[in-house]
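writing this on my phone so excuse typos. first protein, seq and then structure
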Amino acid sequence: MPNGAGDTSTTTGLRVGVLALQGAFEAHQERLIEIGVDAPLIRTPLDLETVDAVVLPGGESTTMSRLLTTSGLFDALEDRFAEGMPVFGTCAGMILCAADVLDGRSDQRGFDLIDLTVRRNGYGRQLESFESDINVAGLDEPFHAVFIRAPFVERIGDDVEILASLDGVAVLVRNQRCTVAAFHPELTNDVRLHEIFVSSLKTSH
């Protein structure tokens, strides 16, 4: 399986912050560094000030929502998103970005960045985790996707582009500023989805 394509040996000049409150943030940072992107970890509002985009990683969405609030990062991120900052959300990150969340906690907060309805843990609990090869728009070969307590997309808005589906259900989608995956692309050595996101940043700069 390819690990990515294109010129990844030189620094892109972009800074993509990785939310580092909980979850698989270090793996995202590693994938971004592999493709020449400066990827600082984001733990405070001050950390957020110098980045061009942000990754919201997988983890436990209700815990991440609480930590975002107590750290002061929720409001800081909301302000940056209102200014148009792009975001790549994976698994729990998809839940945080979605317009509507089913089976979430009543106090769970999100950013309403993409017109989706998702069901939290819609593919089952930890024991129902699985892996599958999926076809992604723009990629010549399938991407090996790792699903762990993954959200299930139940509704998609008209302005949302489907990049990949599994058994007829969207698992990778985007709009103008927000790309979200129901799975964990950072848990493989395949950097192509991170490259797709970074390429979208280059065209918007």
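second protein below, same order as before
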Amino acid sequence: MQGPLHRSWHWNGYGVYNLTKFGVNGFTESLRQEVTRRHVRVGVLEPGGVATELGSHNDHKAEVREAINSFYEQTEVLAPEDIADGVAYMVTRPRHASVGELWIMPTDQA
């Protein structure tokens, strides 16, 4: 996405946020490799903009809050049900198939 919001926010003050996202991805891949021969599927779903209250729960700097508000005003964001559909897709693949990573984002969030 051209602009302030994209898959990972790399803004001053978001170090812990980015650390946790990268940590979850690394842990997920490690766990996937450990259990895959037992046909246990492990994957990570990474959503783009979703209509939730998350933005209102953070104490953002004014410019970050403005960028977030602008993004939600200009983007047809996903519904929580869209994410649920992605989870259902990941866990209903045939036993021999595994989805290790799935990105779901609004079509106008490049």
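The domain at 15-104 is CATH 3.40.50.720 (Rossmann fold). thats all i got for now
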